[in-house]
Design a protein that fits this description.
The protein contains ten helices and 16 strands. With 326 residues, the protein is of the alpha/beta class. It folds into two domains: 181 residues, Quinone Oxidoreductase, Chain A, domain 1 (Alpha-Beta Complex); 127 residues, Rossmann fold (3-Layer(aba) Sandwich), CATH 3.40.50. Helix 2 crosses helix 9. Strand 13, helix 7 and strand 14 form a beta-alpha-beta unit. Helices cover 30% and strands 26% of the residues. Strands 3, 5, 6, 7, 8, 15 and 16 form a seven-stranded mixed beta sheet that branches. The chain has a six-stranded parallel beta sheet with strand order 11-10-9-12-13-14, sandwiched between helices. A three-stranded antiparallel beta sheet has the order 2-1-4, with no helix packed on it. The longest helix is centred in the middle third of the chain and has 19 residues. The protein is globular and about 60 Å long. GO terms for molecular function: mRNA 3'-UTR AU-rich region binding; NADPH binding; quinone reductase (NADPH) activity; zinc ion binding. Keywords: NADP, Oxidoreductase. This is Quinone oxidoreductase. InterPro entries: ADH-like_C, ADH-like_N, ER, GroES-like_sf, NAD(P)-bd_dom_sf, QOR-like, Quin_OxRdtase/zeta-crystal_CS.
């Protein structure tokens, strides 16, 4: 019997339950996967609260890594015994489990240099960082970016990747401890948003010019400051809403603030093409395998502690990546 975390109603962390379920055999195009580690992401909270609707009762989690135990008909991209990782959205929902049936399509084979624990901590964050660094904007050496939640899982990867591209990184954090972590991973400057006005400090650091790109995963509480931190014709990239949804925006505001660009990308649209997905994954794995990008797994939990893990994540008590170890 597999152990799986599910919720029968939306709400706070208390709605999460650990249940025993019989998994069965894989059907056509499916595999049976034994998990070694499962990723914890803010998107999991969106599913749990109903911001991302799912039929109830529902499993939770969209990212994990493990070992293929059996394969169904027509599966050719992986074989029994392969170590694999995956991430997605609705197509991979149910990762909080010891084992599961899953379509073979989203599975990515792991190179020897990447452990399952590292993969579970970085597949979603790493592929997100990969498209942000390699697909969103034509970066030039010397460009300056503003990175919110710089000590978070995506933030630490983006900071390191940005330095490989020769960028200057200004990162926002909520404490001096997080500022130290961000600086250790490539941030040239940090701004404690609890103590400083972000846009004012950005203008000071850039000689009044502003930054080329803002990566904002916080949303409601940082959106205005993000726009005010951009240089003329800069790009605002909304990559999350950890503090709540962004209020409706009159496009005229973008013109008044310097003919700004605004985008709200989703990982799914950058990995839907298998060729592009493989290219982004290969570049990510190469950087991590060679030690150019280090993945910080700073919190580990048991599946039985899913509610506690969600409370920790929501209260912003975590840094780097968090995983469940099976």
């Amino acid at each position: 019997m597999a152990q799986i975390v599910r919720f029968h109603e939306t709400g706070g962390p208390e709605v999460l339950r650990v249940e025993a379920l019989e998994i069965g055999d894989p059907g056509p195009d499916e595999v049976r996967l034994r998990h070694v580690a499962v990723g914890l992401n803010f998107a999991d909270i969106y599913f749990r609260t109903g911001l991302y609707p799912a039929p109830l009762p529902s499993g939770l989690g969209t990212e994990a890594a493990g070992i293929v135990e059996s394969v169904g008909k027509n599966v050719t991209n992986v074989a029994v015994g392969d170590r694999v990782t995956y991430t997605g959205a609705y197509n991979t929902l149910g990762a909080y489990s010891t084992e599961r049936l899953i379509s073979a399509a989203p599975l990515i084979k792991l190179p020897d240099a990447i452990t399952c624990e590292t993969a579970a901590a970085m597949t979603m964050r790493g592929l997100t960082s990969a498209y942000l660094m390699r697909r969103i904007y034509d970066f030039k050496e010397g460009d300056v970016i503003l990175l919110h939640a710089a000590a978070g899982g995506v933030g630490l990867i983006v900071s390191q990747w940005a330095k490989l591209l020769g960028l200057t990184v200004i990162g926002t954090v909520s404490s001096e401890a997080k500022a130290e972590i961000a600086r250790a991973h490539g941030c040239d400057h940090t701004i404690n948003y609890s103590l400083e006005d972000v846009a004012t400090r950005v203008r000071e650091l850039t000689g009044g010019v502003g930054v080329s790109v803002v990566f904002d995963s916080v949303g409601k509480t940082t959106f205005d400051a993000s726009l005010d931190s951009l240089k003329r014709r800069g790009l605002m990239v909304c990559v999350g809403t950890a503090s709540g949804p962004i209020a409706p925006l009159n496009p005229q505001v973008l013109a008044m603030k310097g003919s700004l660009y605004l985008t709200r990308p989703a990982l799914a649209d950058y990995i839907s093409d298998p060729v592009e997905k493989a290219a982004l994954a290969q570049e990510l794995f190469d950087h991590v395998g060679a030690g150019r990008i280090k993945i910080e797994v700073n919190q580990q939990y048991a599946l039985q502690d899913a509610a506690h893990a969600h409370r920790e994540l929501e209260s912003r008590n975590t840094t780097g990546s968090s995983i469940f170890v099976i």
